[in-house]
Amino acid sequence: MTQRVTPITRYTRRIASSLRRAADGDETHLTLTGLVELLGPRAHRLLLLVVSLFNMIPGPPGYGGTIAWTTCAIAVAMLLGKQIRLPGIIGKRRLPLDLMIRASEQVVTVAGILARFSRPRLRWLTGAAANLPYAILVIGVSVVMALPVPFINAIPNVGLCIIAFSMLNRDGAGVIVGIGATAVGLGVAIAIVVGAFHLGMAAVGSMG
Fold first, then answer.
1. Are 10 and 107 in contact (CB under 8 A)?
2. Is the pLDDT of residue 2 over 60?
3. What is the pTM of this model?
4. In Å, what is the CA distance from 68 to each residue of 34, 56, 57, 104?
């Protein structure tokens, strides 16, 4: 039986093939600016999916914050209807191509499985008119995820992944699920920040 080709399977295959082409040269790493140029400076939704997926990959200290600010920059460009231009401090960050390719190939496999359950529906939640609220939501969430607090970005980022996946697959029902997951993640993130604040105050008080 031939697998049904959905928008998300086409997009994820595009990501994987683009990264493989980039690896055909002598480069072993790709900058975030290079990634934007590779996938297209106006491919806001596609790049939001890519960076949210990359945020699930463990990285060195500061990696999560860099990806969070990248996510924010892409969302700001979407909000303004402009091409994506990353600030130099973010755009020059280099990511290993082999890791990106392996991750993209896994994404293609997972997308093929999820596409069996996700389908175009409630399209009014995924049309061009949704770009404005989508961008505002991503900006707010990415700013929270950029806070230098351990594990703060894990659950909200899962929600952003679901939303990005569903937006590309024209699945409004999936967008609703993603918004719910993001809300839960933000609640957990706020609880972590409040807990860290109280622990810090308690530590300061014990030293007085």
1. no
2. no
3. 0.85
4. 17, 11, 13, 19
